[in-house]
């Protein structure tokens, strides 16, 4: 099997990670593209003594730590990208990297230590620091779009444990739009397939046509959204999910939101 074939299954998830790290599909994809270009240019330098996924993320982090792609003009930037850059300029990225790599991408502490070239104990400290930042986030009103009662209850518990309020739990596209207009949320958590065979994606599109709000998609089929075509979600959680994954995604979505933008 060629190196390209080994890396291909991991690319959608690297794009997910890069977008969550930068808060932007444009910038995240630019780093992934630069990573792949570096691998193609010098395949003999790709780490051969580790799992291909580890090698891919290690190469990505080498690009991330040595480049300034986010400073390059990309054209057509929106307010959320500007907020993201203001946030990133103020915070050390290592705690965010450690949290996302463990909670969102499922790497072990030892894996993360390899990826960002730190001791495992230091990685654990970074994760604790990131979790402290989560607790300091501004409270938000959250709309949950989920038709499976047990999953909806689990998500609601996680949201409330983080100190946020739940405005409603919608099970159809029509319900979701109505609830969003009745009490405008500061965050939307949305499943893709809803109770009446309507689409959570369409519900989100309807909501975003009226208000600007960060969205996290939760789905058992991430490959349907991570196709490399625009538009794609910046924040995406795969079912079945870990509570820590949902917490990390919520913190990152609010991290890049207007309500918590630095002055």
TrEMBL record:
The modification 4-aspartylphosphate is found at residue 191. Pfam families: PhyR_sigma-like, PhyR_sigma2, Response_reg. InterPro entries: CheY-like_superfamily (IPR011006), PhyR_sigma2 (IPR053866), PhyR_sigma4 (IPR053867), Sig_resp-reg_PhyR (IPR014605), Sig_transdc_resp-reg_receiver (IPR001789). The keyword Phosphoprotein applies. Gene3D superfamilies: 1.20.140.160, 3.40.50.2300. The keyword Transmembrane does not apply. Keywords: Phosphoprotein. SUPFAM superfamilies: CheY-like. Residues 141-254 form the Response regulatory domain. NCBIfam families: PRK09191.1 (NF006623). This is Response regulator. The lineage of its organism: Bacteria, Pseudomonadati, Pseudomonadota, Alphaproteobacteria, Sphingomonadales.
């Amino acid at each position: 099997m060629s190196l390209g074939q080994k890396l291909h299954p991991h690319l959608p998830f690297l794009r997910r990670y890069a977008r969550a790290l930068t808060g932007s599909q444009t910038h995240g994809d630019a780093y992934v593209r630069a990573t792949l270009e570096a691998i193609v240019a010098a395949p003999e330098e790709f780490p051969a003594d580790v799992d291909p996924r580890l090698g891919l993320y290690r190469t990505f982090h080498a690009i991330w730590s040595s480049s300034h792609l986010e400073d390059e003009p990309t054209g057509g930037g929106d307010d959320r990208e500007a907020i993201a850059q203001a946030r990133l300029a103020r915070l050390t990225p290592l705690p965010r990297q450690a949290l996302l790599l463990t909670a969102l991408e499922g790497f072990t502490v030892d894996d993360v230590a390899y990826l960002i070239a730190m001791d495992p104990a230091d990685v654990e400290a970074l994760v604790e620091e990131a979790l402290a930042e989560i607790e300091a986030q501004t409270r938000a009103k959250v709309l949950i779009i989920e038709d499976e009662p047990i999953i909806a209850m689990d998500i609601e518990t996680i949201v409330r444990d983080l100190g946020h309020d739940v405005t409603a739990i919608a099970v159809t596209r029509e319900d979701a739009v109505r609830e969003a207009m009745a009490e405008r949320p500061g965050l939307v958590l949305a499943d893709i397939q809803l109770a009446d065979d309507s689409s959570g994606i369409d519900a989100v599109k309807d909501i975003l046509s009226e208000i600007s709000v960060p969205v996290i998609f939760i789905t058992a089929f991430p490959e349907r959204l991570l196709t490399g075509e625009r538009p794609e979600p910046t924040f995406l959680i795969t079912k079945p999910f870990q509570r820590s994954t949902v917490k990390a995604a919520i913190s990152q979505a609010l991290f890049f939101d207007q309500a918590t933008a630095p002055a």
